[in-house]
Amino acid sequence: MPRIGIDFQLKHKMMAQDPTAEMSDWYVLVEISVPRGGAAGGLSQAVERAFEAGLVSNGVIAETLGQREAFWNAREQMSEVQSREGASIKHDVSVPVAAVPELIARGSEAAQKAVPGIRPVPFGHLGDGNIHFNFSQPEGADGKAFMDGAGAVHDAVYAVVGELDGSVSAEHGIGQLKTGLLKQVKDPVALKMMKAIKSALDPKGILNPGKVLG
Q: Binning pLDDT at 50, 70 and 90, where does residue 100 land?
């Protein structure tokens, strides 16, 4: 989670106080399950080793269910709070895990060139490389005008995703908004195979007709 997402939630009073240990550009939320009778100190030991290795600068371990809920709220409210901050251009993309930092750095730079003042708010699932690469409108900008220029931001982000051998669609799938994009990035042979399978399973064309494959 990026710091800007925490700041948005504090600004719009979606949380009573900052749940983080200290100011940082990025935060990682980790939850582990301990088997019944297992050693509950495993997380503490892992955090201590991360400190020693220089992987983390600070951290907080939830001591109560209330603290755990506050941590998860900070993550789950990330999408909602962006709507309170104005218009938001969103992407659901994935890249190899090792390429996530490069995706965020290059994608943010490319989007900021396309729309000066745009505010990157990328967050997501670090373990599988699935990033919700969202961008809030520049402060004081007109929301409609911002969204009218979304195409340039999409092109900038998807270009970086492609160069990193990523996917333009992750956990939320293609849906109806990305059908045109699917035809641009998918191999024509693969598309023909998909249509053949659809035709074999749905010869009368009654299952979601025209939604994805047409």
A: very high
